[in-house]
Amino acid sequence: MSMDIDAGLVDSHCHIDFPDLAGDISGVLERMADSGVTHAVCVSVNLQDFPRVLRLAHEHSNIFASAGVHPDHSGDEPSESELRAAASDGRVIAVGETGLDYYRSSGDLEAQRERFRRHIRVAREIRKPLIIHCRQSADDLLRIMHEEGAREAGGVMHCFTESWAVAERAMAMNFHISFSGIVTFRNAETLREVARRVPLERMLIETDSPYLAPVPHRGKTNEPAFVRHVAEAIARVRSLPVAQIAAATTENFNRLFHAF
Question: What is the pTM for the complete model shown?
Fold first, then answer.
């Protein structure tokens, strides 16, 4: 099922290296093409598994990589030098996934905050944008972004589920807002209102696959091909052609990441 979208679509955040999808990479890429999805970013969640993320980016010209450690990761703490080395590869277009997550975390949250600060410092140093995860942590996250000068790196608030006020503050610091399949969920009216208000020039779309499959695939394994449903949902909310959402988000992606 192909889409009549000249610009194509980009999945700005996925995890196709995870076991749910890694065994069928050729199928994932074929279904992407059939759905008009031209490129995707395979996002790192820890440095131990980073080599498999990077390998996908080197093997497939339309897959890019990021380098970083998810706030939930409980392994060894990455040093700035380790992050810098990983993120300096030419196929790595962003630093992250980083940020703060207070939903699942317990114990010493200051360690999580310090990890976030290291990612921001590395992104500023190597001049690559940040991919930021935020869950029940917006005040601390925005404060640290301000204190560490995250605006100099810029980036994206991925899988955005926060309020319009948080979106405004993030955009004021040179960040884009990325919407996932959550925007298609029946109980996500507040998020759809944010999607209606975010300027088109600051918007990205993603799947966060293999998680958060959009309607009509909810409950199934998500994959980059399904990012078209996110674009369609936003087009409906904004009363715009889906081709306009595709063109804007693809242009935004390339302007931010200098990927193609």
Answer: 0.96
